[in-house]
Amino acid sequence: MFTLPFFTNNEPKSNGNSRMIDLRDVHKYYKTAIGDYHALNSVDLQIEAGEFVSIIGKSGSGKSTLLNMITGIDRPTSGEVFVNGTAVHELNENRMARWRGKNLGIVFQFFQLLPTISVIENIMLPMDFCRTYPMREREKRALELLEMVELADHAYKLPTALSGGQQQRVAIARALANDPPIVIADEPTGNLDSKTAESVFALFNELVAKGKTIIIVTHDSGLAKQTHRTALIADGEIVNEYVAKAMPTLSRDQLLQATRIANAQAYEAGAMILSEGTNADTFYIVTKGTVEVVLPRENQSDVIAVQLGPGKVFGEIEFFHEKKHSASIRASERGTVEVLAISYDQLNELLGQSEVTREALHQMADKHQEENVTRRGRMS
């Protein structure tokens, strides 16, 4: 198990909230011989301090372009990018390099270690560039980082004397040289055997436990599932994670279609969203807060049958059954609720493309219908 040295510099700033990364309506176009290529399309992505987020998507989906927006390597054609409270899209080149050195640790798939200087000198380079530590302390810190990744015995060797897995661990140590609040890793385990990949992932988890915000791009869905959450990108657009959670059997293209057609709605705490007996025409996915399924009792107080959090759905019973709401739905008193709404006509078209999703949703509706009948029987 890796052990971490104590981090003292650059603790994540609150900036009035805990949001570490905030991309707002980001578009990126590249000029090509056949016209403009829309690499990112209306991307909104928010990542809180201390989150461990994976970004997945097919080759050419926009993963690298998205990372380039966050790191400031490239700029959006339109939209805004805020990282650790800084408007990255407004920085000039001189300020960008120093800001990046202090705020971001970047781990590359192919290590990018300088082959003609020693391992420890590679780790000291970011400190030399940003002058984050006194010169007399830099070698000591670099050795502490190498001890963290269990490579202190190799400190004065050239990188070419190390295996691929060892070089990747050195690259992670180098990314942490200036103690940045954010670590971004592009396919960090892509060239490693499974055992070494797991040890690298364990290191990332330790860093998250210490308060670091970590973003990884990976093709390994198994590793992605171990992160706090996953952002799926397809054709330059972010698929809504709650749509993916609610209907996991949809294909990536279908998930993207569902994300596009879903209409975001917000309700204040305690607000009634749907009333029992009214006509039903919409399927809902909860994205924030908690909604309550309420069963009324004659001459008595209402009963909260169940509470639904992010990723849960309602309106599916009515879609497959009587088309009238069999219960009332309201926002919890604890805070604002946000949902995505998809009309029944749009849902029917979507399910027409995925019979397995239709069947899964139908089974869910039948189960919930039976549960409602049982609850009402107990109330009578």
The general outline is elongated
- Overall pLDDT: 87
The strand count comes to 18
Approximate strand percentage: 25-35%
Question: How helical, in percent, are the residues?
Answer: 25-40%
Distance between the termini: 58 Å
Describe the largest sheet.
6 strands, mixed
In N-to-C order, the SSE pattern is EEEHEEHEHHHEHEHEEHHEEEEEEHEEHH
Q: Over all CA atoms, what is the radius of gyration? A: 25 Å
Strand order of the largest sheet: 6-7-8-3-9-10
Low-confidence stretches: 1-17
Number of helices: 12
Quickly give the structural class.
alpha+beta
Helices, strands, pairings?
Layout: E1 19-32, E2 35-48, E3 52-56, H1 63-71, E4 78-83, E5 86-87, H2 93-103, E6 104-107, H3 119-130, H4 135-148, H5 164-175, E7 182-186, H6 194-209, E8 213-217, H7 221-224, E9 229-234, E10 237-239, H8 241-246, H9 252-261, E11 263-267, E12 272-274, E13 282-288, E14 291-297, E15 300-308, E16 313-314, H10 316-320, E17 328-331, E18 337-343, H11 344-351, H12 355-379
Helix pairs in contact: 3-4, 3-5, 4-5
Structure description:
There is one protein chain. With 380 residues, the chain is α+β, with helices and mostly antiparallel strands. It has helices at 63-71, 93-103, 119-130, 135-148, 164-175, 194-209, 221-224, 241-246, 252-261, 316-320, 344-351, 355-379, and strands at residues 19-32, 35-48, 52-56, 78-83, 86-87, 104-107, 182-186, 213-217, 229-234, 237-239, 263-267, 272-274, 282-288, 291-297, 300-308, 313-314, 328-331, 337-343. The strands form 4 sheets. The chain has a 6-stranded mixed β-sheet with strand order 6-7-8-3-9-10, sandwiched between helices. It is elongated, with a radius of gyration of 25 Å. 38% of the residues are buried. Residues 1-17 have low confidence and may be disordered.
